[in-house]
Batch of 4 targets.
Target 1
Amino acid sequence: MEKKLTAISLLCSIVLIAMPLVQGSGPTELKNWYKNLPRLKPKITEIHFYLQDIVSGPNPTNVPIAAPNSSAQSPTLFGLIAAIDDPLTSGPSPNSSAVGRAQGLFASTSLEEIGYHMTFNIVFTAGKYNGSTLTIAGTNPFSNKFRELPVVGGSGVFRLAQGTALLNTVTFNEKTGDAVVEYNVVVLHY
């Protein structure tokens, strides 16, 4: 019994020591990064991926969380608020390799056209950006072929990021509401 407790205690100690390494930088490292900021050179990074927006089926990644009664009668679903946790893939197929998740909220904010205010994070879960995020906030006029949304921040590799995400709907199933949206993102970061 004592050997089991010692092994469990040792394992817990290793996990506690390793947690700061897994969770990101600590306060000292963060302060030092900002102190060195004047010496850092800005970088421009281009990223390309596909968002798999799944509304139908048993495991939707886009779910309504609030809607006034009038949304059902509105051709633009005005007032609808939804949460997303959409998979991001390297190609347009849902079976393409995963690169991350788009996690956040959007609201239908136009009475005249299908348009959403979107606020969400691109959370990278694979590749060289694994553990980093980009924050996007802006208006998405969904019926336009190309839509430009601002990148307003980021974390990890993308600290102090600013830039643009250009969206293009590759497929949209009017019956199910499922969509595949191509993202071409250009960010300035340090």
Note: The longest strand covers residues 43-53.
Target 2
Amino acid sequence: MSIVLALPPSAQSENAVPLRYGVIVYPGYQALDIFGPLDVLNTLSLAYPLQLSIIAETLVPVSTKPPVPFSNPRSDFSQSINPTHTFASCPPIDVLIVPGGIGNRVSENIDPVVEYIAKIYPSLKYLITVCTGSGLAARAGILNGRKATTNKRAWARTVQLGPLVDWVPHARWVVDGNIWTSSGVSAGIDVALAFISEVYGQEVGKMLADFLEYERHTDPSWDPYAVMYGL
């Protein structure tokens, strides 16, 4: 039992919840798309024996720096993350997190990502996408016939990647079966907390939000950005 974070009595037991998480990274990913949900899970790991795989095409460190022509040539500002596994070597996982980012506008960056999502999805318990990560899931074909949402600023560009998807324009996050999709960037924190509340227990989600001093949005239809962009 953690000496830092004690689970409430209503929490699900570790035998009843997913424990093996994976997150995909690719050049030009959006940092908060990954680290928002991961910090929620970092905190959850104080109470549950979680495992994390950071998955990329190779084991070379992967940078947030947007690829040409989307980067600013006058800036030298980015962060890198070290993958723990490649698409070919990743162990079994229960939950896969797919981030968005400017880098997914470059096809050669994400073709292997799309192929991996399509391949691994049938073995997952859950899939969570953040921001334009839902566009990658759409390209993989796993959102066909399902409801999903995405970043509202990138709405038109993303929804065209999935003409068979039932895109929901006014949503902070959307749940359809075992797939959770969120709106842009910071919405990844809300979808992570909503997912944990549903799967691990409502009091667990509240406990994590309070631990992080985060005032979460609990209404999945809250979406001022849909209004901002006229959706």
Note: The CA atoms of residues 2 and 47 lie 5 Å apart.
Target 3
Amino acid sequence: MDGLNDYRSVRVAEILDDFRTLQYYIAAAPVDPPNNDDYYTEGWAALRQCAIDGQHILNCAADVTVPYASGGEAEQTKAELRQVLLDAYSRRHEAQKIYLRQAAAQRWIEYRESVLQGQRPSNAHRRQLRACDDQLRGELARITDQAIYQELQTSDLTMGRWTAEDPTLRLVQRWVRARPQTA
């Protein structure tokens, strides 16, 4: 018994609270454009994919196999908390990725609206709209697992959270890969 189960419990609660907050924002984002002609544009397609991904990460099953640890009740609790921590941490990681992708797509919408100024797209807007699409693609490309992991780690440390047993990026990626979307 290492005496850290209270820290582990608090850590799980913090991460689950972060995940819940991210899910709220993900669910609140728009998915349908005001004009149906814009339905298949890059930004709106990205927002719809984010909504699908957000629902998936919320609904994907947790690993319900209970790890067995010798050494008594405290060691068993430790093993279970570590498993729950991986699940919560991975969900928060994916939710942060979705949230950042949504934010990029919403900036795309704002930029596109400022270009069009209430008009429908025409040849006169082509260059600016292409730049808007390129900007979105660039932003989405910069949203990597490594960047998100680092950002969340820095945020947790800044808030003074206990991070001694946080899962590695490799474990998070393995958790995500084990839960593919079925469409």
Note: The mean pLDDT is 93.
Target 4
Amino acid sequence: SVRFIAGESKFNRKYFENFTFSITNDQVFLDMYLRKPLLRGWRARLDFQLRVGNSKSFQSLFSTNVDVCNIVNAGKMNLFKKWYKNLLKYGNFLRQCPLNVSHLKGWQFGEGLVPPFIAGGSYRLETYNFYGHYRGKDEDFIMSCTADAIIHI
């Protein structure tokens, strides 16, 4: 089981009218309203982190930059595509990129979305969405979210 304990987000008003990320009763809720489509070239940096002992520090276990539209449009099922399919249950997203002006309301992290290689423990997932190159001069920030969770296996 997954118990979410904390979360925060930031967003660029150029892309979103509203982006509200909250955790209530161990569940993640995301309400967002896009101002304009998210087009090809939209990238996400995902960082899975494990809490170090009883400290407030986290150590990165796995970090990757992904092309979100390639994942959304791919026919092959992988963990990222599974997450996107779960998002489709709660919003009016298109099944392919570009994502047009749309909304997502009351999203909940569903069962079967935790990678099988994850052991029980205290974790943090950070996602940072952008156009251009991560931390480069041409980076155009879209939004970021951080969620802390305790996973019981």
Note: The longest helix spans residues 79-88.
